[in-house]
Amino acid sequence: MENNQNKETEKQEWNKFQDANDKSSDNGVKSQEKPVKKESKATAPAQKTLPVAEKPKSAEEEAAEQKAKRRKIRQAKRLSLIGAMLILVAVVAGMAIWGILHLRPADRTIQGQADCDVVRISGKLAGRLVELYVKEGDYVHKGQRLAKIYSSTTDATLTKAKEMKNVASSQNLKVERGTRYEIIESARKVVEQARSAKQQAIAAEEITRKTFERLDNLFKEGVVSEQKRDEAKAALDAATAAVGTATAAVETAEAQLEMAQNGPQDEDKEASRGMEHVAEATVKEVEAVLEDQYLIAPCSGEVSSIYPHIGELVIMGSPIMTISQLDDMWAAFNVREEKLNDLGVGKEINVMIPALNNKEATMKVFYVHDMGSFATWSATKAYGDYDSKTFEVKARPVKTIEGFRPGMSVILK
């Protein structure tokens, strides 16, 4: 019992000492005092004091100490989290304010882009690119030679077409001149021969007729036999037939002579002339294709792009190069319809060009057109709002702007 009372007394003294140490630590002063145990009746003669480091801790003390440490750690984490959140909110707010002040464009600022008409140079001739007379960046004038394309197939076609034209021309000349002189003379000789043969047949008929008449009279007198009379009659009939044949031959020869003298018919002449015209058109068609073996600049401007290289094959209609018409520059803006009040056709606007050291210029609107449904700004509210269409507005400089080139930004305020 006495020992238990001594232990309880020591425990109470130790707790008082710990409380004193905690209070001195909070005030920034370390306590150098050590607890002094009360003397018990059993231990009074000893007069010993237990060192601080050697004092054992009970389970309740250790649990209380650990609980206090965890509470302090939670409080520190909570304070750190609150501080981090406050810092994050401050950073986001600062960025938002900076963006509002510096990044948000003015309500009336509209940005466009400079542009110009671009002409694509191509030809009707398919062949091989053998020569280029210009390079990218060169300024060319209307009518200037740009490139040469060679096609052996087209050259052969032209030669063939020319030969066909020569054949058709010769044939037409033959028809137009009519029948040759030799043919007419030959036909005339045939007519003369036919007429001579007819005269001979007529003379022979006359002789046989007289012979028949003489024998017929003698037959009636009974001098000659009937057979002699019949033979004379047959000879007369043959001579008469020969006269008819000779007459027909004369008519045929005369018709041949007349046809030779008249020459070809009008229809034959028209057909021959038509074939000659077809041959001429074929030659012109091939020559028109070959005209594009030398590509000529249709306008003045700057060569912006050249697509094939020398030696490459090009097909009919494929672009060889592009020419930018820098003499006719303009700027295009995409504007919502509620901002079109001051952008009507014919109105002058003030713009600023950043690429030219923020140079200011005056332009005149010449084109306003909607960009279709794909460029419609849809309303985000179900009620109280409407869809807004986007219009393309184009304007030309009132005066020439030195150094103004396609692709430069143009600011409209």
Main attributes of the structure:
single chain; about 425 residues; alpha+beta; Elongation Factor Tu (Ef-tu), domain 3; Topoisomerase I, Chain A, domain 4; 3 domains; 6-stranded antiparallel barrel; 4-stranded antiparallel sheet; 12 strands; rod-shaped
Question: How would you sum up this structure, described in words?
Answer:
The chain has 413 residues and is an alpha+beta fold. The chain folds into 3 domains: 2-88, no CATH class; 110-116 and 321-412, Efflux pump adaptor protein, beta barrel domain (Elongation Factor Tu (Ef-tu), domain 3, Beta Barrel), CATH 2.40.30; 160-283, Topoisomerase I, Chain A, domain 4 (Orthogonal Bundle). Helices cover 48% and strands 20% of the residues. The protein is built from 6 helices and 12 strands. The protein has helices spanning 2-26, 59-103, 152-177, 181-221, 226-262, 266-291; strands at residues 110-121, 127-132, 139-140, 145-150, 294-296, 301-306, 313-314, 321-336, 348-353, 359-370, 390-397, 409-412. The strands form 2 sheets. The protein has a 6-stranded antiparallel beta barrel. Strands 5-4-2-7 form a 4-stranded antiparallel sheet, with no helix packed on it. A hairpin with a 5-residue loop joins strand 9 and strand 10. Helix 3 packs antiparallel against helix 6. Residues 23-54 have low confidence and may be disordered.
